[in-house]
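Objective 1b. Sequence-to-structure analysis of Damage-inducible protein DinB.
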Amino acid sequence: MAHLSVQLYEYNVWANNQIFNRLKELPQDVYRQEVQSVFSSLSNVLTHVYLSDLGWIEVFSGESMNHALELAEQRKEQTEAKEIGEMEVMFSELADRYKSFLNQTKNINKPLVIEHPSGDLMKTSVSDLVPHVVNHGTYHRGNITAMLRQMGYTSVATDYGLYLYLKTKGM
């Protein structure tokens, strides 16, 4: 059986794909439509999630938190400019990077010492932080669902329980 962190990450990829598939069914302008919500558009939510996930894999790979934050800032504008199909490819490529990293046993329990921007140090491990990455994605998929409802559209189920059920059915 896969390590729980790997399984949770696989769920995260599945849930993101569910969202992308739903968004591609909707009129093209919905992706950038302005909405009064936590984020101003669906494209902004996906940009935030992507850059956050990118930052964490950088940290997992040995880069500093400051590097991850600077990378996100550097790539924010160009990422926001991407269309839905381009974002889907970027998420897929990033997922491949995570899977390659997480499937190396030495990496899953890799100890990390992360310097918070405040200067404080946090001692943790990759396996302790993967659930954070997944939880962050889940939280923002909830934002997407709420925003779609505000715009008059339905979303799609992305629950972990559904994922486990579908997995037993061979998806």
